[in-house]
Amino acid sequence: MLRKIAPLKATIMRALVLALSVLTATAAFGETQMTGKEFEAYSTGKTLTYASEGQIYGVEQYLTDRRVRWAFVDDTCRIGHWYEDSGNICFVYEHDATPQCWTFHLTNGHLMARFISDPPSTELSEVNQTDQPLACTGPDVGV
């Protein structure tokens, strides 16, 4: 009987740890996940600068019709678009058709984003916003 209980206890403990991890991640954002409509309303017409762990990560300009222009720090601009998929906001860029999906949360008036990967790793926070276009350093200059 004890042999049957030990694996059950371990399974229950793993489930509790997983549930606690999910709750902790959700609480860290302090808000519920944004829908595509909410994300579009917040971002369209803005150029947002994102940081990860206190370091500038990149800048994205959100254009009409869910089009975007993205650049990592000191990198070439990438043109793409975003769409909603199962509650996630997914980006596809001309240079790479692989969807890059994120969850977005509005916390204290700023976006927080978490990359959907296994395991989740990249978390970004909005550190600046402007209505000015993204200054591109590469082939998309003037676009």
Short description:
The protein is α+β, with helices and mostly antiparallel strands.
Q: Could you explain the architecture of this structure?
A:
The protein has 143 residues and is α+β, with helices and mostly antiparallel strands. The chain folds into two domains: 1-30; 32-130, Lipocalin, CATH 2.40.128. It contains two helices and eight strands. The protein has an eight-stranded antiparallel β-barrel with strand order 1-2-3-4-5-6-7-8. The protein is globular. The termini are far apart.
Task: Give descriptors for this structure.
2 domains, 143 residues, alpha+beta, Lipocalin, globular
Q: Nearest-angstrom radius of gyration?
A: 19 Å
Number of domains as seen in the coordinates:
2
Strand order of the largest sheet: 1-2-3-4-5-6-7-8
Instruction: Please give the count of helices.
Output: 2
CATH topology of the largest domain: Lipocalin
Structural class: alpha+beta
Summarize the helices and strands and which ones pair or pack.
Blueprint: H1 2-29, H2 36-43, E1 47-52, E2 55-62, E3 67-72, E4 78-85, E5 88-93, E6 96-107, E7 110-115, E8 123-130
Antiparallel strand pairs: 1-2, 1-8, 2-3, 3-4, 4-5, 5-6, 6-7, 7-8
